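Convert to structure. Protein one:
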Amino acid sequence: MNAKRVMVFIDGSNLEMALKEVFGNKRIDPIKLSKKLIEDRRLMKINYYEAPLWESVNQQSYKKQQKFFEFLRSDPFIEIRLGRRAKRDKEYKCPKCGHIFSKTSWEQKGVDSLLTFDLITLAARNAYDVAIVIAGDQDFACPALEVRMLSKQVENAFLDNRSWSPVLKSIADKTVNLDESYLYDRWQ
């Protein structure tokens, strides 16, 4: 076994949206995916970042998410790191008739900053040698660069679609394209 200590940082919503865009309703098993990315190195922890849904907004989606969280918690190497949801009412104007209507959405807040905080502070505390970031946001490019400046390796795995930031890819020591051939045995 390789002695390098690896931590995995998964932006759950970011990954789920990209998977849905590319593969439809297929869901990935983040534990199996992480273990494949780690290869023969030493797993320290998998941090899964998400914002919990509100039961009062959609009971079915809430129950489905809670069941998924229970599945994740069954693995001793997984830690679920939660942000929050914020209600946003946005107004839209119909381009044809000019009618103004509002739409309510529930945006996640604090998830990216929590992942960024953990990525940097755990590197500074020497908790890992290699960080595997499963996300495509350009927001993680500067934190990844900071981690590299702390003499840690950063690997970035994501789907090669329009949401995978070229800047983040260029900063990473290694990138892994989560295409169908890579994910074939990692579906949930």
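Protein two, convert as well:
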Amino acid sequence: MLAVIPTILSAQPTITNAENFSIGTVLTFQQCNSTGVSPGNSGASQTWNFSTLTSLSTTSVETMVTPASTTHGNLFPTSNLVEKYSDGTFVYVHATADSSYLVGYVDTVNNYIIHYPNSLLFALRPITYSNLTTDAFSDIFSSSSYNFNGQGTSTINADGYGTLILPNGTYSNVLRLKITQNQTDTVLPSHTLSNSNTISYVWFDGIHTSALLKIDSTHTGTYTSKSVEYLLNETIGIEELTKNNDFNLYPNPSSGQFTILLPSDNAIISVSDLLGQQILKTQTAEKTLNLELDNNGIYFVQVTTKQGTTTRKLIVNR
């Protein structure tokens, strides 16, 4: 399922925007069969080839919303962002410029709520190869007729960088993080102990705020679960784009055809190559563009409105 081939073509990346979501961002992931999928090797200049992942019939969607827009927002006063999942779960986050912490979790399907009195670190910004951070956390939750008081540690280890190959494209200068959560829960009123271990491998590039690929494995006693999913789309809500005179484009990498989410219909769109040569310029309201290019590589998409000019990088991989 996975071939790992060393390469000397990848530069060591520093990721500055991992999990640094704006309100209104929407992520769509393709869920995959996890059987036989290995995260591969750690280390410098790796090539992680997941091009043969087997897609399931399901996708998952995450939408970034405000705590006030959710039913349980008042339970987590330190939260300033909520990751709302399409399966009915809500992750309450306290995000700053340099980190993201989990402060609460709500499962509306199975009807339980987790509080993190000592919040759980799950993202650092910036982060580069060989960075290693460990942080303590605690949690309180109820399930069925049992109450749990837990504590543990979360470790973020930037253990590799290189090239990531997915079914929908190839990504260079990618940083892999190994996130380990070791937790011990005391089950009340019996005071018995329950131990769990979760290991997540996530890959980030310098373009997306979301992970490109997630491989999660959880072990609790004799129970083991595993999931694999990769990013299909990352879009930013139009309100946030308008406020910041920004735009988003997807898919990225692209085969040459891509869609632009614009802050205004009155925008000039231009595309140029690395040498600055203009390939396309349009002032139409058309938001899906098709570049007829002979070469794969990096291109720059520029959008100009009356508020100013913004540029984003587009990777073309036919």
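The chain has two domains: 3-235, 245-316. Confidence is low (pLDDT under 50) at residues 1-8.
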